[in-house]
């Protein structure tokens, strides 16, 4: 007879599935590691059993004890399954932005759930972090796993997720992408993969309203980066100990809307009924892949959980419309702007060695205000008429200098499915235009004039 002794024995060995339709126009092989095949329907099953068993070995958790954790829902489910198998009680604190489905599921498996306000500081006594810590102090024989700072979290993925990815790809994986919340999944598996091949690139997916990306790039914990967002399970307003920034090569931020729309696309176009942060992971990973991956590269993206947790949110058309997220289907996108142009239109550029005077003549002739700067086939900078004018007034002799001496950084690349509101938020005095690659990998420029025309049309 073939059977498992308990449900927790079925955790892990989740499949890799190739993405086919949402990856159109992107080089390389894009594989999703579908973690809803775990018994609790999420990647967090892996850390639930690991944190509990490590606590047992350390003598922190004893028979008849109570497990108390602050969770966005999935970790609670992973802990609850192991608690059922081993005979422990569970109390979970969650923020009030979590879906009702997650709360109902936790109660269905026998856990007590305490809902706490989202928009309070982590140290506020009402936050779900603080309430969990207080209950741990008050209740005898209780264990507070604290998935954020408990290094058993990352260890679970170092011992299971990383080796699975390496084995399943036969060591061919070149890029690993994952949403970053507690940091365990990206850093645990990412560490293992880098030990096998130091050239593996780990891409962390963050959300707007979270501190991770700016902290990685500047070393500054900027509280101005923190503001409310809706996506569940990724991003943080703290720096968990499981986040080892040295193991994360790049961060990509994804909006709530782009994540929600991509999640629905995964269900409709790939047959993967997944959770909200899965959309974040795929959208951000593809943004990175579009610019950096080669044909022979292999990227693995973690899809953390199942769509049943979000039936009343992103899979509910009314909820999506109320939050403006369905606009992506009827509201113009970068794709619409590109497709409205003559197919023969080519991107105008200037080379780094072109003289400023000649660049001015080109801008004037074409009636444009900004232009990308190239070095060979690479876009390495940008030039705007306002910048040139200011420089010429200050130093007239610069007219005979190469463009490279006064160019600005390159314009940002955006995805084809970014909507006008997102595009307009990215154009400002520091970034005068945007670039986008179409399905044939041709580069197009999007300016304020393009956005105004699209909005008016």
Computed structural class: alpha/beta
Question: What's the Cα radius of gyration?
Answer: 24 Å
- Number of DSSP helical runs: 16
Give the percentage of residues in beta strands: 15-25%
Uncertain segments? none
According to DSSP, the number of beta strands is 16
Let me know the largest β-sheet: 6 strands, mixed
**Could you estimate the helical fraction of the residues in percent?**
25-40%
Give the N-terminus to C-terminus distance in angstroms.
Answer: 67 Å
Summarize the structure.
The protein contains 16 helices and 16 strands. It is an alpha/beta fold and 457 residues long.
Features of the shown structure:
single chain; 457 residues; alpha/beta; six-stranded mixed sheet; 16 helices
Structure write-up:
Helix 1 (45-57) crosses helix 5 (152-168), helix 5 packs across helix 6 and helix 8 packs across helix 9 (276-292). The model has no long low-confidence stretch (mean pLDDT 91). With 457 residues, this protein is of the alpha/beta class. The chain has a 6-stranded mixed β-sheet, sandwiched between helices. Strands 5-4-3-6 form a 4-stranded parallel β-sheet, with helices on both faces. The protein has a 3-stranded mixed β-sheet with strand order 11-12-13. The protein is 37% helix and 17% strand.
């Amino acid at each position: 007879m073939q059977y498992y002794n308990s449900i927790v024995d079925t955790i892990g060995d989740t499949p890799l599935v190739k993405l086919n339709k949402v990856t159109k126009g992107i080089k390389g092989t894009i594989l999703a590691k579908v973690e809803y095949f775990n018994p609790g329907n999420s990647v967090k099953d892996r850390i639930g059993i690991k944190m509990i068993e490590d606590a047992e070995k350390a003598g922190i958790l004893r028979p008849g004890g109570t497990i108390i954790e602050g969770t966005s829902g999935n970790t609670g489910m992973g802990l609850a399954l192991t608690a059922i198998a081993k005979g422990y009680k569970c109390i979970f604190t969650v923020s009030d932005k979590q879906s009702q489905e997650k709360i109902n599921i936790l109660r269905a498996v026998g856990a007590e759930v305490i809902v706490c306000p989202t928009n309070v500081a982590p140290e506020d006594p009402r936050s779900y972090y603080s309430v969990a810590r207080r209950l741990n102090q008050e209740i005898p024989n209780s264990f507070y796993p604290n998935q954020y700072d408990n290094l058993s979290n990352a260890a679970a993925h170092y011992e299971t997720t990383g080796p699975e990815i390496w084995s399943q790809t036969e060591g061919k994986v070149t890029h690993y992408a994952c949403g970053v919340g507690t940091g365990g999944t990206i850093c645990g598996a990412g560490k293992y993969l880098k030990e096998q091949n130091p050239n593996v690139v780990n891409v962390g997916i963050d959300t707007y309203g979270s501190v991770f990306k700016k902290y990685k790039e500047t070393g500054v914990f900027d509280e101005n980066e923190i503001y409310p967002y809706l996506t569940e399970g990724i991003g943080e307003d703290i720096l968990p100990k499981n986040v080892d920034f040295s193991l994360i090569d790049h961060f990509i931020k994804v909006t709530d809307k782009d994540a929600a729309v991509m999640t629905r696309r995964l269900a409709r176009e790939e047959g993967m009924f997944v959770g909200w942060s899965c959309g974040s992971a795929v959208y951000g990973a593809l943004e990175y892949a579009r610019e950096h991956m080669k044909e022979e590269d292999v990227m693995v993206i973690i899809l953390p959980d199942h769509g049943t947790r979000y039936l009343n949110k992103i899979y509910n058309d009314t909820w999506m419309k109320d939050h403006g997220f369905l606009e992506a289907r009827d509201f113009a996108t970068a794709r619409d702007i590109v497709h409205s142009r003559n197919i023969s239109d080519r991107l105008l550029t200037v080379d780094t060695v072109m003289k400023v005077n000649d660049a001015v003549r080109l801008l004037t002739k074409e009636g444009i205000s900004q232009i990308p700067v190239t070095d060979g086939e690479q876009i390495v900078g940008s030039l705007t008429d306002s910048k040139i004018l200011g420089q010429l007034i200050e130093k007239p002799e610069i007219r005979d200098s190469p463009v490279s001496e006064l160019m600005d950084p390159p314009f940002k690349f955006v995805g084809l499915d970014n909507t006008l509101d997102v595009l307009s938020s990215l154009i400002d005095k520091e970034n005068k235009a945007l670039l986008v690659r179409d399905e044939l990998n041709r580069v197009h420029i999007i300016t304020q004039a393009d956005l105004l025309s699209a909005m008016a049309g």
